[in-house]
């Protein structure tokens, strides 16, 4: 038996035959054509076919995975209608009188290389989008058939270099038991979609496609991040028992649906969910969410050709507030820029958009956009328990400016006779180290903090979380990160305020004992992680976790912290 180690991207265990995803040969030499116009027509016909396919995939994703996952395919459709990509291809066919396949590949590769060299998450994802749609159009031009994963009709585990969003959306959960890839991380498209579909996944193995052959029996352990190739029957039997135990554990977790999240020594914390659209509410309720800790409003703005209207936003916010039936809903104002871009906003290209004109910085300058969103939120506030938070706050002046605009819009609405709640809490995302360091000053003016660990960790460690060469520095359990988190929580509590967390770390079973000990009040995570987290917290003693956290803060390495958590939680 051979084994591979990767990243545990989606929990669970699966045993099945390997289905090695082999991409069709989609290369084509440069050829001269006599009729350039006919070649352009052939190219446009291939684009049209690809658009029809993507629309079908988008509908399937909407129905099965939710609106925010389907937004990926809106981005793909925008690529296929982008004149900056299409016009150079057609111009190349016309002026050089060459075949469409070569013109498409040559132009797409130029864009892909350009985006990949920018070395940030958003541009890498755009490169992946272009690669995905280029493959689809090329397949139509060359008459090659792309494997339709939805047609697999026997139990299998997908083995691939990577899975594109359109690949993942086609997986039939009845037959696809898991997948493993050479590349990827916990925040990649395929990992996020695997968690939504609740199928085990191990990504970033580096060599799965080299080591695993079609038909090999493999085990994917999405709990430990391991893949075992052609194991003995004894090992298979062991894992099947582990699989049964895990499924039984999920049944036990389901019994906690309506329970409060209380530690063994009586301390209550709130388990909330991160959502992207009102359609995600079903998963929150199904998994016993005690609130919404992060409503990512940018999905309202993405996958479209114009800004959403005030009325459209109002209806979305109202639906979420009413759907949560009085439970708290924390709405993050527009967080565009960095890894998310709007094609209809003519924003300047930046060398490092993660540290550039984004989130609150954009909103304070583009006030028409910001004021429209705030009006919609304020109008919706009377329909539930609304809390508003501003993202990417670096200075107190930014918070004060954003709050002043909100107060102005509230006064305008009240003058118009619109009912606005008087109970709206106003907070900030803590995702910049300077904000964490100055948390004692912020805490005097905000109503709450929500710690965004995905960015806080990469900014603190100066390590792009999507760059595999420095991924070892993405360390959520680092004593440096824990100290920053403690500063934020302590500052909030000193002023009688609450502190939550909405990054990946909040649902991490190694981090949860530490965060509990540090005094975190609200843990916000993927809805599918809530019941597992609740089960874990019910077994933990707040007092003992405080002792653990105190020791961890004095440790010098991440590995020491991990070992300390294991020692206390595995007793």
Task: Give a structural overview.
Helices cover 48% and strands 14% of the residues. The protein is globular, with a radius of gyration of 25 Å. It has helices at residues 36-65, 67-79, 83-96, 100-117, 121-142, 165-169, 189-197, 208-211, 233-254, 281-286, 310-323, 359-365, 367-380, 396-415, 433-437, 439-442, 453-461, 479-494, 511-518, 530-538, 542-553, 558-569; strands at residues 2-5, 7-10, 13-20, 156-160, 176-181, 201-203, 217-221, 226-229, 270-275, 292-296, 328-332, 385-390, 425-430, 448-451, 498-501, 522-525. By secondary structure, it is of the alpha/beta class. The mean pLDDT is 89.
Question: What fraction of residues sit in β-strands?
Answer: 5-15%
How many strands?
16
Rg value? 25 Å
Number of domains: 3
| CATH architecture assignment of the largest domain | Alpha-Beta Barrel
Query: Number of helical segments?
Result: 22
The dominant shape is globular
CATH homology group of the largest domain: Phosphoenolpyruvate-binding domains
Key terms for this structure?
single chain; 571 residues; Glucose Oxidase, domain 1; Enzyme I, Chain A, domain 2; TIM Barrel; 3 domains; eight-stranded mixed beta sheet; globular
Task: Lay out the secondary structure.
Blueprint: E1 2-5, E2 7-10, E3 13-20, H1 36-65, H2 67-79, H3 83-96, H4 100-117, H5 121-142, E4 156-160, H6 165-169, E5 176-181, H7 189-197, E6 201-203, H8 208-211, E7 217-221, E8 226-229, H9 233-254, E9 270-275, H10 281-286, E10 292-296, H11 310-323, E11 328-332, H12 359-365, H13 367-380, E12 385-390, H14 396-415, E13 425-430, H15 433-437, H16 439-442, E14 448-451, H17 453-461, H18 479-494, E15 498-501, H19 511-518, E16 522-525, H20 530-538, H21 542-553, H22 558-569
Parallel strand pairs: 3-4, 4-5, 5-6, 9-10, 9-16, 10-11, 11-12, 12-13, 13-14, 14-15, 15-16
Antiparallel strand pairs: 1-8, 2-6, 3-7, 7-8
Helix pairs in contact: 1-2, 1-3, 1-5, 2-5, 3-4, 4-5, 11-13, 12-13, 13-14, 19-21, 21-22
């Amino acid at each position: 038996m051979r084994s591979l180690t990767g990243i545990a991207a989606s929990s669970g265990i699966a045993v099945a035959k390997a289905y090695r995803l082999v991409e069709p040969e989609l290369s084509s030499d440069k050829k001269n054509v006599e009729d350039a116009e006919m070649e352009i027509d052939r190219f446009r016909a291939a684009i049209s076919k690809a658009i029809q396919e993507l629309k079908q995939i988008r509908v399937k994703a909407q129905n099965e995975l939710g609106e925010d996952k389907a937004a990926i395919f809106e981005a793909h459709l925008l690529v296929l209608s982008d004149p900056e990509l299409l016009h150079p291809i057609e111009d190349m066919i016309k002026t050089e009188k060459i075949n469409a396949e070569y013109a498409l590949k040559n132009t797409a590769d130029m864009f892909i290389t350009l985006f990949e060299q920018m070395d940030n998450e958003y541009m890498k994802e755009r490169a992946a989008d272009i690669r995905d749609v280029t493959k689809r159009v090329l397949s139509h031009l060359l008459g090659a058939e792309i494997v339709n994963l939805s047609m697999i009709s026997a139990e299998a585990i997908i083995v691939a270099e990577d899975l594109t969003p359109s690949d993942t959306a086609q997986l039939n959960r009845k037959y696809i038991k898991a997948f493993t890839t050479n590349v990827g991380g916990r925040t990649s498209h395929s990992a996020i979609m695997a968690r939504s579909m609740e199928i085990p996944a191990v990504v970033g193995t580096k060599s799965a496609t080299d080591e695993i052959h079609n038909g090999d029996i493999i085990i994917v352990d999405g709990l430990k991040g391991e893949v075992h190739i052609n194991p003995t029957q004894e090992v298979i039997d062991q894992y099947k028992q582990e699989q049964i135990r895990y499924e039984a554990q999920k049944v036990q977790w389901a019994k906690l649906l309506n329970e409060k999240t209380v530690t063994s020594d009586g301390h209550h914390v709130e388990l909330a969910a991160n959502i992207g659209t009102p359609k995600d509410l079903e998963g929150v309720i199904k998994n016993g969410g005690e609130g919404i800790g992060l409503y990512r409003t940018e999905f309202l703005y993405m996958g479209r050709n114009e800004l959403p209207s005030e009325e459209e936003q109002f209806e979305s916010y109202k639906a979420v507030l009413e759907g949560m039936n009085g439970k708290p809903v924390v709405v993050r104002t527009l967080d565009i820029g960095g890894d998310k871009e709007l094609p209809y906003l003519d924003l300047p290209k930046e060398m490092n958009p993660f540290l550039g004109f984004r989130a609150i910085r954009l909103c304070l300058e583009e006030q028409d956009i910001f004021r429209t969103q705030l009006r919609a939120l304020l109008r919706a506030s009377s329909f539930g328990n609304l809390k508003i938070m501003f993202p990417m706050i670096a200075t107190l002046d930014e918070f004060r400016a954003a709050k002043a605009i909100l107060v102005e819009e509230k006064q305008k609405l009240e003058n118009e006779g619109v009912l606005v709640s008087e109970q709206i809490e106003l907070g900030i995302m803590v995702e910049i180290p300077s904000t964490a360091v100055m948390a004692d000053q912020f805490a005097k003016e905000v109503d709450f903090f929500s710690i965004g660990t995905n960015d806080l960790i990469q900014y603190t460690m100066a390590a792009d979380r999507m760059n595999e060469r420095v991924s070892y520095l993405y360390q959520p359990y680092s004593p440096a990160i824990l100290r920053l988190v403690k500063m934020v929580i302590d500052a909030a509590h000193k002023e009688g305020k609450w502190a939550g967390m909405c990054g990946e770390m909040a649902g991490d079973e190694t981090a949860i004992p530490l965060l509990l000990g540090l005094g975190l009040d609200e843990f916000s995570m993927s809805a599918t992680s809530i019941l597992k987290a609740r089960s874990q917290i019910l077994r933990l003693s707040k007092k003992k976790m405080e002792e653990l956290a105190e020791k961890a803060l004095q440790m010098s390495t991440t590995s020491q912290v991990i070992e300390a958590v294991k020692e206390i939680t595995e007793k």
